[in-house]
Design goal:
Blueprint lengths: L2 H25 L15 E6 L8 E5 L4 E4 L9 H14 L5
Antiparallel strand pairs: 1-2, 2-3
């Protein structure tokens, strides 16, 4: 397997771990630390690799809000960071405010 293929596989495993963390909290109807949401809000749906600009994970919360998650195992000052930031900027045009 090429280095790029290995990195992609490791990234996929990391996304699964992140999704599992969210799913366990959803099943227990518990809030997820770090999302800065009220204590009575929890995930009710998880979507993967969506058509959204921030596409790794999208968690729909019990209050109807959605959390767009870039699940990255590591971040450096490289094209991967630029791609993530570009996705966040593009995501802003889809957010109601």
């Amino acid at each position: 397997m090429s280095r790029a293929g290995q990195a992609d596989a490791v990234g996929g495993v990391f996304r699964v771990v992140a999704a599992t963390y969210l799913a366990v909290h959803a099943l227990r109807e518990q809030p997820v630390a770090g999302l800065d949401l009220p204590n009575d809000v929890h995930a009710i749906r998880l979507d993967f690799e969506t058509d959204d600009p921030t596409d790794d994970l999208v968690a729909t919360m019990s209050d109807g809000s959605r959390c767009f998650i870039s699940a990255k195992r590591a971040v450096g000052n490289d094209r991967h960071l630029k791609s993530s930031v570009d996705g966040w900027v593009a995501q802003m045009s889809t957010v109601r405010g």
